[in-house]
Amino acid sequence: SLKLGVALSDKVDEPALLKVKNIRNKLAHGETKFSNTCQDITLDESKDLCNKVKKYLGNVIDQYEVFLNKIQP
Asked: What span, in angstroms and rounded, lies between the C-alpha atoms of 47 and 53?
């Protein structure tokens, strides 16, 4: 039988994702302003966060492609 779903790790060991999620939530809920949130993040740190998130999301996309290729006739 075909197992449905995408094999993503339940345990994500990437602190950058948690940091981005927390920043996003604070901004979305009006707890902070963008300028205040980002004042302590250097350009290099921002680029590093961006690269780590892109890498993780790239892996998610790859897993979906594998899944979709398995179910297509």
From this structure: 10
